[in-house]
Amino acid sequence: MRNTAKITTAVLAAGALTLGLSACGAGKDASDTSGPLIVAASPVPHAEILNYVKDNLAKKEGLDLEVKEFTDYTSQNPATQDGSVGANYFQNKPYLDDYNKKNGTDIVPVVTVHLEPLGLYSHKVEKADDLKSGATVAVPNDTVNEARALKLLAANGLITLKAGVGNEATPSDIAKNPKNLKFKELEAAQTPRSLDDVDAAVVNGNYAIESDLKPSKDALVLESPKNNPYGNFLAVKKGQEDDPRVKKLAKLLTSPEVKKFIQDKYAGSVLASF
Predict the structure, then answer these.
(1) Distant-in-sequence, close-in-space partners of 57: CB < 8 Å, separation ≥ 6
(2) Rounded to the nearest 5°, which phi and psi values hold at 133?
(3) Where is the lipid attached (S-diacylglycerol cysteine) (predicted)?
(4) How far, in Å, CA of 262 to CA of 54, rounded?
(5) Hey, what domains does the chain have and what are their CATH numbers?
(6) Span 185-211, pLDDT tens digits
């Protein structure tokens, strides 16, 4: 009986300790904003811009910033939603809307920073009009970027899309295809690597830069920044917008210093959106 009492007491004590630790941990996760703000980012240009802020502006503003690079951008929203990182910087509004809808998540934009113009590139022709009948064009295979790629081709007269097509367009939504173009759907990061195997490829701006392509010079056709909905922004899980660290970073990311950094470093291949 005495042994049973000792065991029971020990179990209750351990349970109380566990609950106490859990409560402390939960409180810290929910309210402690004293540590560094960890921001997930694609390497180029997002992490480069964040590292400029970290190295040149953050200390004066009292911001402890940690930049965590993700080469696979599809991992950044899950990390933000589960709290592994405090924010991310890689995506545009149509992409985020699609992600939240499909995953039941509640990530929200904070401030738009820049646009990476989507471009059509080729190692085989020098002008888009030179693409031959039956040419193969690589396009990103995720919902929003594929639609964006097709809209780029349509805006430059290579195809015509069906009326009313939105951000979920696929090759099946092409109404007219005078060159009988064929489409190869690839992960966005693979499109620049496909240029030796296809006639042309539509490449996201960040992957173009990483592959030593200069969008402002090398693209056969390039997105216009005018009224463009695809600006990239800082994003957080809903409820974290008022985190003082997030507010400080938002302010710094839209500062004159960052605008000048973008202009000087990317020479038109990345465009400030503020």
Answers:
(1) 252, 255, 257, 258
(2) -60, 130
(3) 24
(4) 15
(5) 37-117+229-272 (3.40.190.10), 119-222 (3.40.190.10)
(6) 999 999 999 999 999 999 998 899 889
User: Over the stretch 73-109, which tens digit does the pLDDT of each residue have?
Assistant: 899 999 999 999 999 999 999 999 999 999 999 999 9
Tokens of 245: 């660290």
Q: 165 with 173: CB under 8 angstroms?
A: yes
- Segment 41-75, tens digit of pLDDT: 999 999 999 999 999 999 999 999 999 999 988 99
pTM (whole model) above 0.90: no
Tokens encoding 167: 């951000």
Q: What is the 3-state secondary structure (H, E, C) of the chain?
A: CHHHHHHHHHHHHHHHHHHHHHHHHHHHHHHCCCCCEEEEECHHHHHHHHHHHHHHCHHHHCCCEEEEECCCHHHHHHHHHCCCCCEEEEECHHHHHHHHHHHCCCEEEEEEEEECCCEEECCCCCCHHHCCCCCEEEEECCHHHHHHHHHHHHHCCCCEECCCCCCCCCHHHEEECCCCCEEEEECHHHCHHHCCCCCEEEECHHHHHHCCCCHHHHCCEECCCCCCCCCEEEEEECCCCCCHHHHHHHHHHCCHHHHHHHHHHHCCCCEECC
Task: Kindly report whether the peptide bond that precedes residue 45 is cis, defined as omega within 30 degrees of 0.
Answer: yes
Instruction: Give me the helix-helix angle, 256-266 and 48-56, nearest 10°.
Output: 130
Amino acid at 194: S
Rg (CA), the chain: 23
Q: In angstroms, rounded to a whole number, what is the distance separating the alpha carbons of residues 274 and 112?
A: 7
Q: Which of 109, 101, 86 is nearest to 245 (CA)?
A: 86
